[in-house]
Every structure is written in C-alpha cells, then in structure tokens.
Amino acid sequence: MRRRRHGNVALNKALLLYFTVCFVPSLVRSISVSSPAELHAIKGDTVTLSCTFTSTSPPTSRMSVDWSYRPQSGGLPRTFFYFASRAFPPSEGQFSDRIKWQGKPAHGDASISLINATLNDNGMYTCTVRNPPDVHGATTSHSVLTVTQAPSIRFSDATLLLAFILLPFALLTFFLIGRILCPKKQHSQSKTFRSPIEVTEG
Fold this sequence. Notes:
Number of helices: 2
Membrane topology: Single-pass type I membrane protein
CATH class of the domain at 31-148: Mainly Beta
Keywords: Disulfide bond, Glycoprotein, Immunoglobulin domain, Membrane, Signal, Transmembrane, Transmembrane helix
Distance between the termini: 158 Å
Oligomer: single chain
Subcellular location: Membrane
Strand content: 25-35%
Organism: Mugilogobius chulae
Number of strands: 11
Shape: elongated
CATH superfamily of the domain at 31-148: Immunoglobulins
CATH topology of the domain at 31-148: Immunoglobulin-like
Structural class: alpha+beta
Radius of gyration: 38 Å
Order of helices and strands: HEEEEEEEEEEEH
InterPro entries: Ig-like_dom (IPR007110), Ig-like_dom_sf (IPR036179), Ig-like_fold (IPR013783), Ig_sub (IPR003599), Ig_V-set (IPR013106), Myelin_P0-rel (IPR000920)
Helix content: 25-40%
C-alpha cells in the first residue's frame, strides 16, 4: 500500500510539474508587443512609429501605452508620450506639437506619428503596453529610427551618356525634317508666282 501511495504521490507531482511548465508561461506571456526593428525617413517626413499588441484580455480603460526615446548618442530613455483612455502628447521639449496618436486599442494598435522628422530624432523608440489583468501586464518593443538628408540630384554616367546621344540625334532629326519640308514649300510658291513680264513667241 505504501508503495502504491508513494507511486501516486510521485505521479501527482509529475503531473503538477507538467502543467506548471506548459501553462504558466502561456499566462505570463499573455500579452505581446511588436514593432519594426528599423525605420528610415528623410528629413521633413511624417514617420509612423508602428506598435501592435495582442492580449488574452480585451483592452479596457485600464490599458495604457507609453512611448520613450533614447538618443542615438546614448543616455537614458525618457518618456515623451502617454495614453490612458485618451492621448497625452508632449507639450514641451523635443517632440512638442510633433506627436499624433494613431492607435486603435480595440484593434491592438498603439502606433503614433512623428511629424516633421529631423536629424535630432535619430535613436531608439520604445513602445510599452500594459493591459491588466494580464500577468505582469507590461511588454515592450523597440524600433531604431534613422533620419537622413534629402538626396541631392545627381546625374549618373548612364544618364549623361544617354543625354549626349539623344540630344544630337534629336537635333539632326529636326534638321533633316526641315530640309525635307522647305524645298516643297519653295516649289509650291514658284508655281503660284508669275512675273509681270511674259515672254511670247515671235
């Protein structure tokens, strides 16, 4: 009997360990956030900082989103945008009047727009979503934004070669067309023109 009881206890412990290993991580990871790893923009563009999330619990008024920024030069990240039932865009600092809420929490979207991107905006942007009662209730995702100057107009070697070929060819074509049309015009005029002096026989 003792051996049978000992076997049952061992089996119960094994089953408990199995369920703990299989199901507890799924509860802990019940919310996940994703963002593109890299974003590229040209100075002056409006950039969409995308952030999407999935959660086992439907978003409620307790759900919150915050965005933080860490400069490319390094340093500590600082929060510049917050959402909790409504958006709280920055009223001062680097991003003042340049952030627009684009998110739709009911559709798992917590994105924002950065208006008039500058070279000073280069760095890492972190999106954090909290949606209680999910376990731990917070997951983050990072995107690195690279803003560059508008490319200057540069003519490649192929473009220059094409221009040097097409331009003389076009000029030559117009010249030949003019040569063909002009004699016909002169010939038609010679038929209609008569001299006041007429030569008669005898």
